[in-house]
């Protein structure tokens, strides 16, 4: 498999300039602090972590919505940060973004036909007539009725608006989609519709996804590989099965053990690691291992020396001085809730 | 006798666009020390059910049009306003998804927690504040005596949620209603808050009504589960029955829509097609029929009643009583239709 995207030592710091405590003036928010990963063609890389860990900032740096403070981003062999003119135009066609909020991300004064055609207008592709045909085709692709092309966003539900956003992202035949929490605002039944749609589109159009979300079950379902972030760093990365069944980093282990599963027996018997306290501020991240203030197994070395990502199993890396597998029990679907309708 | 008994609760809002039948015939019981989870998608009537119990529906736009809410022998719906104020916060307390709806930004946290104690328990300022500090300590706020003097904005999201729980529990209520208390929080913080609620419940014998759309949280917390759809109760029973032997096609659909990380194989997701109804224009017959893969003619014409199918386990589907009516994996067409 060939590599489509490579991110190396990505750093993004924001200056703290206003509205905060005086002692923070002149300091920086370490939003992303040395993140590296690569994504192969046709693959989905999941980026998961708690609020504020730097997922969206990473995504925004990749598409050049934000200027990185340091590091390199390579798309299909070319350095994204140096792109200018025609090459930049073509990059902007190839890489599209899907936003979390299906409400805020669509212009309420445009019809959905105009919304879906807009990228073609911006990139001066086609005539009004061909764009309209293409817009109808795209609506059909995402499971909306093409006849509704003249309706406005407020006439659609949350799940439908997310489909409109997906149709717009597909308009220019992109190769890479960065999906930032695309299903987080949706109800479970609708969330499942959109996940299945993304899955299907990936096969149909040979798309590559970077899928950002905080819901661990959703990320596992959609991803081939998963990277777990904590305070601006990747703490663990690996194939979906290994990462979820044999997490090696104490943070991944606690995250997984904290997600309640829809099975009362399992909930009753689960071994849970309850982390204490909150995520520290990214303005003054802890020294050494950033997780040491909450880590249940931290030692002296953890405050002094930062652990590097190192291979713990095939294609599976963790950044912990004491990384070791902690099997989170998962079993065959035999015990899945309710095979039959009635007691029997 | 149950601590709380709700029968045939119906709550409506009268809007320009028509009558919103937000809660349409809901009945349940709650025992001391137990947790009832109310689960359903957004707009299914969960919050309005809770607000109705607390008599917090704003009239005249909204009104409880029918039903009974029996709290220890008294009908809450018939209580005087004075009696209601004495009940709220004291016998039944509520916590919300957004703590800032209960916390006032201009008062210190400790003072606000103490307020309920001054009003309901007649404590003086000093005693109320001391008790507030105790409560903050109990819910795990480090350095509580000091932090009680902070304003809400100086707390993190998780700490505000804890402060709100401290406030709700200060008067030692019989019933705690928690409306999506952890939905806005990260999972590690959610785990802390849920554990705290269970701990307090075990210590004080508080009964909890847990409103959530997260079936994982339900499995974690609930003794009993009520599933709502379109303002109606579609399934009701003890948690194990509802999870392991669900009866209603909507419950099946919810369970089949969930990606699971606790099962090794990656299963197919079977979404429910279409979208939830508007409560102004509820479909005829069974409100779920436009989305239900099992719907027959009768579903379009006749509203199914909530029927007890096995002891303590009821469902509102015309076919739930038929032993041959089973959850059919083939019904999962994974279809892409959104309309
Ligand atoms: N423009 C900005 N100025 C200052 N700080 C910022 C800015 N954008 C993001 N941050 C900070 O950078 C950190 C990472 O933010 P980011 O939005 O990437 O988090 P995230 O992982 O996407 O979180 P969430 O799950 O809440 O979306 C946070 O501490 C955030 O407050
Ligand atoms: N104050 C109000 N005025 C009019 N309609 C309302 C009001 N509050 C709630 N509703 C409607 O009642 C229905 C149920 O809402 P709610 O109980 O909040 O749902 P949820 O299950 O998400 O908590 C929804 O259709 C909602 O729009
Ligand atoms: S390096 Fe130390 S503090 Fe960090 S996760 Fe490993 S054990 Fe915990
Ligand atoms: S009554 Fe009919 S439409 Fe309603 S859930 Fe049962 S089968 Fe489906
Ligand atoms: Mg984000
Ligand atoms: Mg609600």
Detailed description of the structure:
The complex is a heterodimer of chains A (344) and B (339). Chain A has 11 helices and 12 strands. Chain A has helices at 55-62, 85-94, 112-122, 128-141, 158-170, 188-205, 216-222, 240-245, 250-258, 264-269, 300-304; strands spanning 3-15, 28-40, 44-48, 70-75, 78-79, 95-98, 176-180, 208-213, 225-230, 233-239, 310-313, 316-318. In chain A, the strands form 2 sheets. An 8-stranded mixed sheet of chain A has the order 6-7-8-3-9-10-12-11, sandwiched between helices. In chain A, strand 11 (310-313) and strand 12 form a beta hairpin. In chain A, helix 5 runs parallel beside helix 6 (188-205). The longest helix of chain A is centred in the middle third of the chain and has 18 residues, at 188-205. The radius of gyration of chain A is 22 Å and the shape is globular. The relative contact order of chain A is 0.13. The model of chain A is unreliable at 329-344 (pLDDT under 50). By secondary structure, chain B is α/β, with parallel strands linked by helices. Chain B has helices at 46-53, 81-87, 109-121, 125-138, 144-147, 157-169, 187-204, 215-221, 239-244, 249-256, 297-301, and strands at 4-15, 18-30, 35-39, 62-71, 74-75, 92-95, 175-179, 207-212, 224-229, 232-238, 307-310, 313-315. Chain B has an 8-stranded mixed sheet with strand order 6-7-8-3-9-10-12-11, sandwiched between helices. Chain B has a 4-stranded antiparallel sheet with strand order 2-1-4-5. In chain B, a hairpin with a 2-residue loop joins strand 4 and strand 5 (74-75). In chain B, helix 3 crosses helix 4 (125-138) and helix 4 (125-138) crosses helix 6 (157-169). Residues 334-339 of chain B have low confidence and may be disordered. Classes of the chains: A alpha/beta (344), B alpha/beta (339). At the A-B interface, helix 5, helix 6, helix 7, helix 8 and helix 9 of A face helix 7, helix 8, helix 9 and helix 10 of B. Bound molecules: adenosine-5'-triphosphate (ATP), adenosine-5'-diphosphate, iron/sulfur cluster (SF4) (2 copies) and magnesium ion (2 copies). Adenosine-5'-triphosphate binds at residues 14, 29, 31, 49, 51-57, 214, 282 of chain A.
